[in-house]
């Protein structure tokens, strides 16, 4: 972290911190795949943010950074 001329603090954050994020429905629509297919691909994918609402796994929201979505899509199209 460093101070700027106006005595404010700027935190050093990774470049991808504020990149666009996608939800399961967004990716399913973009890739013409089912939501459940996308969810299964995301379960153990590194970089995917999982927000669990309550105790049940059925209430989990997945947030996929654009860089992770690109990595998955590349892997699907190369395979």
Task: Tell me what you see in this structure.
Helices cover 37% and strands 20% of the residues. It has 79 residues and is of the alpha+beta class. The strands form two sheets. The protein has a three-stranded antiparallel beta sheet. A two-stranded antiparallel ribbon has the order 1-2. A hairpin with a 7-residue loop joins strand 4 and strand 5. Helix 1 packs across helix 2 (35-42). The longest helix has 13 residues, at 66-78. It is globular and about 40 Å long.
Domain tally: 1
End-to-end CA span: 42 Å
Q: Please report the total strand number as a whole number.
A: 5
* Structural class estimated from helices and strands: alpha+beta
Report the major sheet.
3 strands, antiparallel
Strand order of the largest sheet: 3-5-4
* pLDDT < 50 runs, ≥5 residues: none
Shape: globular
Order of helical and strand elements: EEEHHEEH
In what range is the share of β-strand residues?
15-25%
Alpha-carbon Rg, integer: 16 Å
- Give the integer mean of the pLDDT values: 84
Task: Fill in the keyword field for this structure.
79 residues, alpha+beta, 3-stranded antiparallel β-sheet, two-stranded antiparallel ribbon, 3 helices, 37% helix, 20% strand
């Amino acid at each position: 972290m460093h101070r700027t001329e106006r005595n404010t603090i700027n935190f050093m954050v990774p470049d991808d911190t504020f990149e666009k994020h996608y939800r399961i429905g967004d990716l399913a629509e973009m890739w013409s795949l089912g939501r459940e297919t996308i969810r299964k691909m995301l379960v153990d994918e590194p970089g995917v943010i999982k927000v669990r609402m309550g105790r049940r796994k059925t209430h989990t929201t997945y947030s996929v950074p654009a860089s992770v979505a690109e990595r998955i899509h590349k892997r699907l199209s190369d395979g």
